[in-house]
From TrEMBL:
The lineage of its organism: Bacteria, Bacillati, Actinomycetota, Actinomycetes, Kitasatosporales. Belongs to the NtaA/SnaA/DszA monooxygenase family. Residues 26-384 form the Luciferase-like domain. PANTHER family: ALKANESULFONATE MONOOXYGENASE-RELATED, C2H2 FINGER DOMAIN TRANSCRIPTION FACTOR (EUROFUNG)-RELATED. Residues 429-449 are annotated as: Disordered. InterPro entries: Diverse_substr_monoxygenases, Luciferase-like_dom, Luciferase-like_sf, NTA_MOA. Gene3D superfamilies: Luciferase-like domain (3.20.20.30). The keyword ATP-binding does not apply. FMN binds at residues 58, 104, 154, 158, 227. It comes from the Bacteria. This is 5,10-methylene tetrahydromethanopterin reductase. Keywords: Flavoprotein, FMN, Monooxygenase, Oxidoreductase. It holds the Pfam family Bac_luciferase. GO terms for molecular function: monooxygenase activity; oxidoreductase activity, acting on paired donors, with incorporation or reduction of molecular oxygen.
Length: 449
């Protein structure tokens, strides 16, 4: 294959991300998630491996659907405790020169006006290397702690997100003209700074953006929703999408559907880079890799896993037996996961056996075998790259950097150096700002006047 494979690292500011219990593994440094040096060391490793970015997940709320309490999640360290991902960005940027940093933030519980300032600040401090993973939140526990009875309905969350994006586009793209900052006798020219005068259904923002234009203006936009409504949202706004599927044919169908929607939205179908979830367990030999796989599985906390799945699916799995089929009921949780599991196609045992070590595909083997399977997966699915989860951190990433990257480079399937420029320019090679067909580009100062 001629295409060079992109790779981001999928992490979270918590003891364990997708494999509860693995913080107990002797090689895991997951308990150091509170230490800044843990993150700066990881960032240096990823940049040494020429990763495109560090993708930091987040959730605002505890997984308390399982048995009606957060106890199982707390015992397993299943995405709780969880710290704010944005606090990590400046330190990571300081020790790297090229690595992109994608942070997850919800449109459901923070007003767009202060959020726009925070992201512009990070884009300045990173020299244009920040990205925003747009989510709409799915846990009732988060909604209750914000003061709501329960979360807003799934599709309405995306309706709110559409207006949220309109507000931040106006602030980032249109409020300040490119030459508004003079820095001579006056710092900025008031005639070139425009109130956005936004009055919508959910938000009213009359004034100017508080920040001068940052290198990208709008951070590179990631999105992870693969429900029907989520894909429509991604087709309109996203520049990169994180997708998960247990089989190549299923992911190919998602990718083709998404690219069709992008074209229908008036954009180039390849204006979105698709990153497939993936887990790699490797070693110098096949036997070493298989031994790691078996050892990692022995540390999994089954109840912690079911706490995550109960939260994602929106219903309690605690009454289920191991061989009971999981029949998904309509709700407002993560619809894409429900669609993947089907109606009774998976049992609880399937969840624990097939997904305990992270998002599929789970590729286990010596470097040549892993490289073969990665290339085959990318070829068969039409994805642009991998969002690489970890089982034991930082070992998962160190193994990939030391063993898999050189093998992919030898095959011409992985870059040997970074391109210069902002994260958006690294992704698309055509400058710092959103493409002319992207909706953000329409919100110029002229459009606001």
């Amino acid at each position: 294959m001629d295409k060079q494979i992109r790779v981001t690292a999928f992490a979270m500011n918590t003891p364990t991300h997708l494999s509860p219990g693995t913080w107990r593994h002797p090689a895991s440094q997951g308990r150091r998630y509170k230490d800044l040096s843990y993150w700066t060391d990881l960032a240096r490793t990823l940049e040494r491996g020429l990763f495109d970015g560090l993708f930091i997940a987040d959730v605002l709320g505890a997984y308390d659907v399982y048995a009606g309490t957060p106890d199982a999640a707390l015992r397993g360290g299943a995405q709780v405790p969880v710290n704010d991902p944005m606090m990590l960005v400046s330190a990571i940027a300081h020790v790297t020169r090229h690595l992109g940093i994608a942070v997850t933030a919800s449109t459901s519980y923070e007003h767009p006006y202060p959020f726009a300032r925070r992201m512009s600040t990070l884009d300045h401090l990173t020299g244009g290397r920040v990205a925003w993973n747009i989510v709409t939140s799915y846990l009732d526990s988060a909604a209750r702690n914000i003061g709501l009875d329960r979360q807003v309905g799934h599709d309405e969350r995306y309706d709110i997100a559409d207006e949220y994006l309109e507000v931040v586009y106006k602030l980032w793209q249109g409020s300040w003209e490119d030459d508004a900052v003079r820095a001579d006798d006056h710092y900025a020219d008031p005639a070139k700074i425009h109130p956005i005068a936004h009055e919508g259904r959910w938000f009213t923002v009359p004034g100017i953006h508080l920040c001068e234009p940052s290198p990208q203006r709008t951070p590179l936009l990631f999105q992870a929703g693969t429900s029907h409504r989520g894909k429509d949202f991604a087709a309109r706004h996203a520049e990169a999408v994180f997708a998960v599927a247990p089989e190549a044919a299923m992911l190919r169908k998602q990718v083709e559907d998404l690219r069709g929607r992008v074209a229908a939205a008036g954009r180039d179908p390849h204006d979105i880079k698709v990153f497939s979830g993936c887990t790699v367990i490797t070693g110098e030999t096949e036997a070493e890799a298989r031994a790691k796989y078996d050892e990692y599985r022995s540390h999994i906390d089954p109840e912690g896993m079911l706490a995550l799945f109960s939260g994602w699916l929106g219903f309690d799995l605690s009454p289920y037996g191991l061989d009971d089929p999981v029949r998904v009921v309509p709700n407002h949780a993560v619809q894409s996961i429900a669609e993947t599991l089907g109606q009774g196609d998976w049992t609880v045992r399937d969840l624990l056996e097939r997904l305990a070590l992270g998002h599929p595909p789970v590729i286990v083997g010596a470097p040549d075998k892993v490289a073969d399977e990665i290339q085959q997966w990318i070829e068969e699915t039409g994805a642009d790259g991998l969002n690489l989860g970890h089982v034991v951190t930082p070992s998962t990433y160190e193994d990939f950097v030391d063993l898999i990257v050189p093998e992919l480079q030898r095959r011409g399937a992985y870059k040997t150096q970074y391109a210069d420029g902002t994260l958006r320019h690294k992704f698309f090679g055509r400058g710092d700002r959103p493409a002319p067909t992207h909706p953000g580009s329409r919100y110029t100062h002229a459009a606001l006047d």
